[in-house]
Amino acid sequence: MPIELGTTTIDKMYLGSTEIVRAYLGDTLVFDSRLTPVNTTGTLTVDAVAGGRRNQGATLTITVADTDGIRAIVSMQVTASDGRTNSFTLNRVDANTFRGNATYNADRWRNGSVTVVYTDATDNLDKTLTQAYAVT
Q1: I need a surface site. Which of 3, 12, 62, 68 has the fewest CB within 10 A?
Q2: Which of the two residues, 97 and 27, has the higher pLDDT score?
Q3: Tell me, what's the pLDDT at 9?
Q4: Residues 78-133: tens digit of each pLDDT
Q5: Which of helix, strand or coil describes residue 3?
Q6: Residues 9-17: contacts with CB under 8 Å, at least 24 apart
Q7: How far is residue 133's CA from residue 112's CA, in Å, rounded to a whole number?
Q8: Predicted local confidence at residue 86, as pLDDT
């Protein structure tokens, strides 16, 4: 059971050269190096290629995956380089993966970011993933 400090996961602790196996806060166990995390954050990948009318825009292939499983997709948004937003559709591939394609016609969609919020199947909590993309 690692400790999370911001976005950093601490999975080993040392006092000098001695590895700390367990740490407590009062009577509460807050770190145990022998336990693996029971919950992970998923991954968001965005493959962007030229698309749309006369290849001026972008065609995105968006994949969300979490080894803990994905109960549901809560929201999805693509943000263009000029700040405009649009939505897209993701379809379930299996219990751990959703995937979808989206094509946008204008030049402004060649660079941007994708944000997906999903519900984790293990702890039923919503998780947010954001990934930048660029058509090269």
Answers
A1: 12
A2: 97
A3: 73
A4: 999 899 999 999 999 999 999 999 999 888 899 999 999 999 888 788 889 999 99
A5: strand
A6: 9/37
A7: 6
A8: 93
Q: Which of 52, 62, 60 is nearest to 107 (CA)?
A: 52
How would residue 35 be classed by pLDDT, with cut points 50, 70 and 90?
low
**DSSP characters for 7-46?**
TEEE--EEETTEEE-EEEETTEEEEETTSPPS----EEEE
At 7, list the tokens. 């976005």
Residues 21 and 3: their CA atoms lie apart, in Å, by 12
C-alpha pair distances (Å), 102 with each of 58, 61, 109: 8, 7, 11
Q: Are strands 13-15 and 8-10 parallel, antiparallel or unpaired?
A: unpaired
Q: Facing residues of 64 across strands?
A: 44, 98
Query: What is the distance between the alpha carbons of residues 19 and 13, in angstroms, rounded to a whole number?
Result: 6
Q: How far apart are CA 69 and CA 103, in angstroms?
A: 27
Structural domains present in the chain = 3-32 (no CATH), 43-134 (2.60.40.1930)
What does the block give as tokens for 23?
Answer: 């740490």
